[in-house]
Design brief:
The structure holds three protein chains of three kinds. Chain B has helices at residues 10-21, 25-37, 41-64, 71-78, 81-113, 120-135, 139-161, 181-194, 201-204, 214-240, 242-245, 251-258, 270-299, 309-320, 326-359. Chain B is an all-alpha fold. In chain C, strand 8 (196-203) and strand 9 (208-216) form a beta hairpin. A five-stranded mixed beta sheet of chain C has the order 4-3-2-6-7. Chain C has a four-stranded mixed beta sheet with strand order 11-12-13-14. Chain C is globular and about 90 Å long. Classes of the chains: A alpha+beta, B mainly alpha, C alpha/beta.
Chain lengths: 534, 369, 383
């Protein structure tokens, strides 16, 4: 671990010890403080206002151009203060006594306001897109929520498309994202705890959970680890994921990321915790086990048989993506006796005169595939297709015809590629793709035994791994039969009466058992039919 | 590093016991038992299972009298500290020998069937390092590993044999019980050795969460092991007949070689079976490896067993290479099972039980097995 | 300290990986032996082992339209050596590939090997101990030299090993040779201390034929069985699964042959001891179809009598076959290949305790009774 620490550095941030600067009574002092802090920032707008019949009261609003909703400021702040206040002028007595109260409660028509007295917090709010309203003669500052920058509209999630299911995905704005989840769960027990992480970026991070369902141990762990993060900036939820996961040496993701609000909502109802991060459409779901990486929200929307078949298919795909090139190497270079005679002779015939040994051949082809994939991802879409053509036609076809690669190898690589994309979780698929190369090397040394050795090591890693206290391989370990109904197969929805056993959820019951009522209704139908006949 | 709380459930104990017991023994069990009792191997295994069950429950009873203490501590109370230390050292050796024997037999089989020119040293050392990697993390991951591997071991082996059901000649189990009683008991004893591994019950008790369910899980572990052995012996003897079976070194593998699977992609299922068998050996090895280091750490009163995991590897490695050939391996295995196993499975528990009754030690009086 | 240890272990593992690949032989560098022939050299002291393997380069030529048939589709090479094992090693000095026996389909023994007890036992042992050879391989005996069979090229299939395997696949169509593979032969040899039946192979001009069998008694060739005897043997041991029995029926002028096509056989056995004599009774219930009779015999089949006649004649025919086999084994060779001793041991253990010790002497005295009942189940599409 020391090695990694050296490379990635445990940089000790010298955190400025600050308890905040209290605002003074003087508007000028306050404004100067802000101006001093935000100097050389030309996008900050300061606007002095005089209000009152005689315009005797000095106010100032401060906001950042581009981050705020200008219409909101014009209509609900400036308009109210400058025009409306005159039409319904309160008694001078009142104003005299407490201008601040009057304006806050009686004049500003903006919806979301709060008051603070800390100038540093005020600056932070301004930087987040709020508008600060400062008063002369009062230390309180009114913060009007006026966030309104250009943002992407809600669009279908690109990395996780489904045939059946909602088409909306998260956006880059945390407020929109929390709203999306709220729309799924209208439960007062849904809690959204927001905090800011990052010494400089002050990124909003929201922890979502349902109070009486969530596994308290997991929640406490998440909270504790989030609070422990000391870093200058958080970009993307990937930062948070890596900072709070248990084992950062592991190739397997211990936190599930998703773009789909329905997936987040369903996970919350299972007793999991979700983390939303500002500026990214990816939410994190905690805890995550290997089995959840193979689930797609669509599994629950479709009938159970097809979902079960798809689940099995995905697990098979993972195994194929993991070992098929290794098996090819082991069988051709070590154990030709294990494949059927006719196939053996065929493979021997196709590999006749090949310049490379099987391992090297497989390695080149797999590396080429990864190369093509990477190039395809980076390039703009129209050119990306060209890469596919180049890869498929020129490299595949030509390599075979030139006699450098055997046709069977090309088939193996293609199957591996397709299989690795059948795994719903992209980060899990990456893990399998990486491990594939290790399996190939092991197979090249020990044949089939090498593959088994690889399995044993990977399994050891997996049984040791835990995601926030939950064993990574559960429910396959610490077996609970009712949990197994949502792993390799997906049982009919009738069977999911309880929340997963692996989570220690206070409210266990998920649904009422409908099976008995079904039988009753069938009997009702029968009786009605009999009556009709008579 | 992830800390595990190192407590396992009674269900996990059951699976851990099964995977520990099923090891290298299944290869030669049908031959050994056929040599002694001819066609009545199944009944001998049944008998051996019942005997093992009795002693397993006796050991469990003994350790349940001292629910928070391991073997080293409670034997110290029962049979004085020095003797207890001697027996504990022998126990460490006993487990170490099992690791060495299992890994050696594994290496030999692998060399013969899959990797004829790979040096056996590399096979042994890679296997031991893999085991050490797991064992370092303690009991909880070990139990989880057994849980994962259990279905991977049992389901394919059970299914693989089914296509040969039509080749079974039930008359191979006749004549029924025509062997002398002495021979039959000898055969029973031979099968009892295949159940070696439940001695870990001496040590397991303090690490179990729900100890009330433990009796049931010990029962189910030994009965399912017995059924598994019977299943395999049924197919091996049913197809080969006992005369052919007893001639084979590893009749189980010979049978696998002889099975015809017309529909499978893999023509010879040896490959699959070898893979699965690697897992069965692995489960036995890490279990014995762990308990050897555990006893050692209790003996030396160290906080963690993991200090001894890696240093044990070279010892096990060199012990595995002591026998010259596979013939000597089986000769040594015979000695170990005839003397040490009998001591730890039968003599020691009876001895401890008598002393316990005489001294009236133990915390609470539970129902006897 | 811990990190150093980790680095050392990592170093060992990397060294292992880098020096590894001990067993790696690329698939194209192997020669997949499909058939092995074993003969004795002229002085009867050394073996002549012949390996037949296909030319892998030729296999895909047919589909991809390559250079045509200038190359040989299959190779056969012979080697003289002291042991079978050394033969497979010596031969590597002459071919550019590593011999691989895992896909061997057939092993053919020349007559001289089977006639020499010591050599035959040695050969069998080397097969038994081999880990590469599959136990599903077919053993065959030829009255010629095994080398002659393997060195020839056959039009039907140039790959002789595959040719033999394919013939065995269709054994259900005929019962002319015993359908037993290596596994069953060794089992029989082990259990009876050296007695077995091994199918016989002969090479024609352009084809091979597997019919009849060789009888091995005490690890030595004791004689050959023809088609009829062989089928009789198979009737008695319950190996018949298909094939046909032809019977004579009165036709218009001369007699016509009518095939009785066997579809199912049930065998029941029983042993009795009467006045010190052992009576072994085999009951065979045979079911089958009539697939040809004679043209323009309208409705004859539907007349109850004809079928009875056919059934009776079939039973007689089968009985005659079994009698031939019994004569051969019991009277001539005096060797229990019919599984009678095995049956007594399993089902009448107390009787076996009495007779088991000198079963070889008692066997020729056993009275073997065969009852056959046949049933015609189907008569084809014509009345």
């Amino acid at each position: 671990m020391g090695f990694f620490d050296k490379i990635f550095g445990k940089k000790n941030y010298k955190k400025e010890e600050k308890n905040g600067t209290r605002a003074s009574n003087s508007l000028k002092v306050n404004l100067d403080y802000i101006k001093n802090k935000l100097k050389d920032s030309d996008d900050v707008i300061y606007r002095d206002i005089w209000v009152g019949e005689n315009q005797q009261y000095n106010l100032a609003i401060v906001f950042i151009d581009g981050l705020v909703d200008k219409d909101l400021i014009n209509d609900h702040v400036l308009h109210s203060l400058l025009l409306d206040s005159r039409q319904a002028a309160p008694s001078i007595e009142k104003i005299k006594r407490n201008l601040y109260e009057v304006i806050k409660k009686g004049t500003i028509t903006g919806g979301d306001i709060k008051e603070i007295t800390d100038l540093d917090k005020c600056i932070l709010s301004i930087l987040s897109g709020d508008t600060a309203l400062l008063f002369d003669g009062s230390p309180e500052i009114v913060i009007i929520s006026s966030k309104g920058w250009q943002m992407r509209s809600i669009s279908p999630p690109e990395a996780e498309t489904v045939v059946r299911g909602p088409r909306e995905g998260f956006t880059e704005t945390i407020r929109v994202n929390t709203a999306l989840v709220r729309r799924w769960i209208r439960d007062p027990k849904l809690k959204i705890k927001q905090m800011q992480i990052g010494e400089r970026t002050h990124t909003d991070v929201a922890v979502l959970y349902i109070e009486d369902i969530v596994d308290r141990n997991v929640l406490n762990k998440v909270m504790k680890r989030l609070k422990n993060i000391k870093i200058d900036g958080i970009f993307e939820s990937g930062y948070i994921e890596q900072l709070i996961e248990e084992d950062w040496h592991s190739p397997f993701p211990q936190v599930l990321s998703t773009e789909r609000p329905d997936k987040v909502a369903a996970s919350l109802l299972e007793g999991r915790v979700a983390i939303l991060t500002d500026n990214t459409p990816f939410a994190l779901i905690i805890p995550t086990t290997l089995a959840t990486l193979f689930q797609s929200p669509e599994d629950y929307y479709e009938r159970w048989m097809i979902s079960s078949l798809l689940r099995i298919l995905r697990f098979l795909a993972a195994i194929v993506a993991l070992i098929s090139p290794a098996v090819y190497i082991a069988f051709t270079a070590y154990h030709p006796g294990l494949i059927p005679t006719k196939l053996t002779l065929y493979v021997a015939a196709t590999r006749q005169g090949m310049p490379f040994p099987a391992f090297f051949e497989a390695f080149i082809m797999e590396a080429t595939f990864e190369l093509l994939r990477e190039a395809g991802v980076r390039l703009p879409v129209p050119i990306g297709q060209t890469i596919g053509i180049v890869g498929g036609l020129i490299i595949g076809q030509a390599a075979v015809q030139a006699g450098i690669v055997s046709p069977l190898m090309v088939i193996v690589v293609a199957i591996t590629a397709v299989a690795s994309f059948a795994i719903p979780s992209y980060s899990a698929a990456i893990a399998f793709r990486m491990l594939r190369f290790i399996f190939m090397s092991l197979a090249a040394v020990f044949g089939l035994y090498g593959i088994m050795l690889g399995f044993m090591v990977v399994l050891t890693h997996l049984v040791v791994l835990k995601s926030f206290g939950v064993p990574y391989l559960s429910p396959f370990v610490e077996i609970d039969l009712s949990d197994l109904s949502d792993t390799l197969i997906k049982a009919p929805i009738m069977y999911f009466k309880n929340r997963p056993e692996i989570l220690d959820t206070p409210d266990r019951k998920k649904m009422k058992d409908l099976r008995e009522e079904k039988i009753e209704s069938i009997e009702d139908d029968r009786r009605i039919n009999n009556d009709k006949k008579q | 590093m992830i800390k595990n709380n190192d407590k396992i459930s009674a269900n996990q104990v059951s699976i851990l016991l099964f995977t520990t017991m099923v090891g290298a023994g299944i290869l030669s069990l049908p031959a050994d038992v056929s040599k002694e009792v001819g066609p009545n191997g199944l009944i001998a295994i049944l008998g051996g299972g019942i005997v093992s069950l009795f002693f397993a429950r006796l050991i469990l009873y003994l350790s349940s009298k001292f629910p928070t203490e391991t073997f080293v501590e409670y034997t110290g109370k029962l049979i004085t500290r020095p003797i207890s230390i001697v027996i504990s050292i022998i126990l460490v050796f006993y487990f170490t020998i099992f690791v060495s024997l299992d890994v050696r037999i594994f290496g030999e089989v692998l060399k013969i069937y899959l990797l004829p020119s790979t040096p056996i040293e590399t096979i042994i050392i890679t296997m031991l390092f893999t085991s050490a990697y797991l064992v370092r993390y303690g009991l909880e991951p070990i139990a989880r590993m057994s849980e994962i591997l259990f279905p991977i071991i049992v389901i394919p082996l059970v299914l693989l044999f089914l296509p040969t059901l039509t080749d079974i000649d039930l008359s191979n189990f006749l004549p029924f019980m025509r062997v002398s009683l002495v021979k039959f008991f000898k055969g029973m004893l031979v099968t009892t050795y295949s159940f070696v591994g439940f001695e870990i019950l001496y040590l397991l008790f303090p690490y179990i969460i729900n100890t009330d369910k433990l009796k049931r899980s010990v029962n189910s572990a030994i009965i399912s092991t017995m059924l598994f052995y019977m299943y395999i012996t049924f197919f091996v003897v049913g197809i080969f007949g006992y005369k052919e079976t007893r001639e084979q070194l590893w009749p189980f593998l010979t049978l696998i070689k002889s099975i015809n699977f017309p529909v499978f992609f893999i023509e010879n299922v040896e490959g699959i079976v070898m893979g699965i068998w690697t897992f069965t050996i692995f489960t036995s090895i890490y279990s014995f490896h762990y308990f050897a280091t555990l006893v050692l750490s209790k003996l030396l009163k160290t906080r963690e067993h993991s200090y001894f995991v890696l240093p044990a590897v070279p010892i096990m490695y060199s012990m595995a290479l002591i026998p010259d050939s596979i013939v000597t391996v089986y000769k040594y295995a015979g000695y170990v099972s005839q003397y040490m196993s009998v001591f730890f499975i039968a003599i020691l528990p009876i001895l401890l039980y008598i002393i316990l009754k005489v001294k009236r030690l133990g915390d609470k009086d539970e129902e006897k097995t | 300290m811990k990190r150093k240890l980790k680095i050392v272990i990592l170093g060992i593992l990397i060294a292992l990986v880098l020096t590894g690949c001990w067993d790696k032989i690329e698939i194209e560098d192997r020669a997949f032996v499909m058939a092995i022939g074993i003969d004795l050299s002229s002085s009867n002291e050394r073996y002549v082992v012949t390996f037949q393997f296909p030319n892998a380069a030729q296999i895909t030529k047919g589909t991809s339209g390559g250079g045509g048939g200038s190359e040989k589709p299959s190779f056969a090479v012979s080697e003289v050596a002291d042991t079978i094992f050394s033969a497979s090693r010596h031969i590597s000095t002459r071919i550019n590939k590593a011999l691989y026996l895992g896909h061997t389909q057939a092993i053919i023994f020349g007559k001289d090997v089977v006639e020499n007890k010591d050599k035959f036992q040695q050969v069998l042992d080397s097969l038994d101990r081999s880990y590469e050879l599959s136990r599903k391989v077919y053993l065959l005996v030829t009255p010629q030299k095994a080398q002659d069979i393997l060195l020839k090229k056959y039009e039907m299939e140039s790959n002789t090993g595959a040719y033999i395997r394919d013939i065995f696949k269709h054994y259900n169509l005929t019962s002319k040779f015993p359908t037993i593979d290596y596994n069953k032969i060794t089992k029989s040899l082990h259990e009876t201390k050296g007695n077995a039946i091994i199918p016989k192979i002969i090479a024609g001009k352009d084809e091979i034929k597997i019919a009849g069998s060789a009888i091995i008694k005490n690890y030595k060739l004791a004689g050959w069985m023809g088609d009829d005897e062989n089928m009789g043997y198979m009737w008695l041991t319950g190996l018949v699964k298909g094939g046909d029995v032809s019977i004579n029926m009165p036709g218009d002028g001369e007699e016509i042959k009518v095939p009785f096509n066997i579809s199912n056989v049930i065998r029941r056995r029983d042993v009795k001891e009467e006045k010190g004599k052992i009576i072994y009774r085999v009951k065979l219930e045979v079911e089958g179809d009539i697939t040809e009779y004679t043209f323009e015999k309208h409705g004859e089949m539907m007349k109850g009598d004809l079928l009875n006649v056919i059934e009776r004649k079939t039973s007689d025919e089968i009985k005659e076959m079994t009698q031939k086999a019994i004569n051969r084994f019991q009277k001539e060779l005096k060797v229990d290949m019919l599984g009678i001793g095995d049956y007594i041991e399993k089902y009448h253990p107390s009787l076996w305790e009495k007779v088991g010790k000198d079963w070889d002497k008692i066997f020729p005295e056993v009275e073997i009774k065969v009852d056959v009942t046949s049933h015609v189940r189907r008569i084809g599409l014509f009345r």
